[in-house]
């Protein structure tokens, strides 16, 4: 696929979308008055404007314009049972009637129960709760730095651990630094930069970026920096950087190297926790991290997150431990914990049905997208397949490789615009699919138990129509 500027295609799609969704368009104009870019959370602020949602159930959301949109984003991968699953909403509604739910500032039995379930299902010794994945990874990083007395945080290029200082380095692929000063292409240069203004000036120097699934480079990085590394933080299944499972060897080597060099291994399971089994994904790899972070699925659609791990490390969060894992008016919010308890217990009871079902639908969705584009002469690759360890997955991301021989196996390939048409997968495809009343992020997202074979057929047909529409512009 050649390099094409998609601005004309995007302008045509935007004009049609404006006609397709006049109420959302009008609301967007109102939104711009007091909301930066018309909303919060940039990923949701689809250009030219996002559909404004009025209700949701299962696989579908309904917008202001009366469209019933088939949703594969499912709350940033959180809604494993679809939107508003009765399993959770019934329990919450009853609790509100019973005078339980919106009281904060105390503690209760639920915290004990949820911590018990979480530790039992993840192999952790101790847990502490907070309210977002970003806070969880920030606290985990503080704990690791305090425990080891070291400064450096190692992460993989493209790894997204939320908006916290050490997570905000090496997330996006920056083309302009690929040849930085050396006169030859250097792939990892793409994931080096701090992603935000306003960060402490020291942060870029405190983060070491290494390549996902490259055990050799990881060993090199530990040889160079090992004495100063507090932790290596990594997702066992990479989410936003391309829907890719970690190789068994990579995580085993990470365990070995962190142990040898006195650093902590942190698995960021904000997405993967309870998405592949009713517990941590690390269990399938047989690799126990020192700390892990959880959020999304475990919260049952409510804001809850956790850091869980070794008792001696977690002890630093306690009285006299010195790490200010504290505050959070809404941390351990009772309604959130009730949703978490309900969801985690339900998944544990139904593990044998839930995961095979969503993994099989995930596989069908990924292949359906590839087939739809191929039938119109467009090469599309849908990542998200399992590997020898992870037997299947409900997740997926679409890439449009510029060359048939390109593998789409690493974030360095998938997010590099020279190798894959990133604008086509992230921007054009999303807007074109919205015109078909289908919502995706990075080309797909995840399937839930609420999705059906008919929904996958609808996705395939929608992709076929999009392929026909964009073909002349490629
Ligand atoms: C792997 C991972 N870690 C952390 C986060 C941050 O979580 P939150 O958005 O709840 O702050 C995310 C969010 O997408 C994530 O995917």
Mean pLDDT across all amino acids: 95
Structural class: alpha/beta
Tertiary shape: globular
How large is the share of residues in beta strands? 5-15%
Tell me the span between the first and last alpha carbons: 7 Å
Specify the helix fraction band: 25-40%
What compounds sit in this structure?
A: pyridoxal-5'-phosphate
Quick take:
This protein has helices spanning 7-20, 22-34, 86-97, 109-122, 133-148, 203-206, 215-225, 248-261, 282-285, 311-314, 334-349, 351-375, 411-414, 422-434, 453-470; strands at residues 53-57, 60-63, 68-71, 126-130, 152-156, 207-210, 229-234, 237-238, 244-245, 264-269, 291-294, 305-309, 381-383, 395-399, 438-439, 445-446. By secondary structure, the chain is an alpha/beta fold. Residues 76, 132-134, 137, 160-162, 235, 239-240, 268, 270-271, 295 line the site of pyridoxal-5'-phosphate.
Structure explained in plain terms:
- With 474 residues, this protein is an alpha/beta fold.
- 38% of the residues lie in helices and 14% in strands.
- The protein has 15 helices and 16 strands.
- The protein has helices at 7-20, 22-34, 86-97, 109-122, 133-148, 203-206, 215-225, 248-261, 282-285, 311-314, 334-349, 351-375, 411-414, 422-434, 453-470, and strands at residues 53-57, 60-63, 68-71, 126-130, 152-156, 207-210, 229-234, 237-238, 244-245, 264-269, 291-294, 305-309, 381-383, 395-399, 438-439, 445-446.
- Strands 4-12-11-10-7-5-6 form a seven-stranded mixed sheet, with helices on both faces. Strands 1-2-3-15 form a four-stranded mixed sheet. Strands 13-14-16 form a three-stranded antiparallel sheet.
- Helix 6 links the parallel strand 5 and strand 6 (207-210).
- Helix 7 packs parallel to helix 8 (248-261) and helix 12 (351-375) runs parallel beside helix 15.
- The protein is globular, with a radius of gyration of 22 Å.
- Mean pLDDT is 95; it is low at 182-188.
- Bound molecules: pyridoxal-5'-phosphate.
- Pyridoxal-5'-phosphate is lined by residues 76, 132-134, 137, 160-162, 235, 239-240, 268, 270-271, 295.
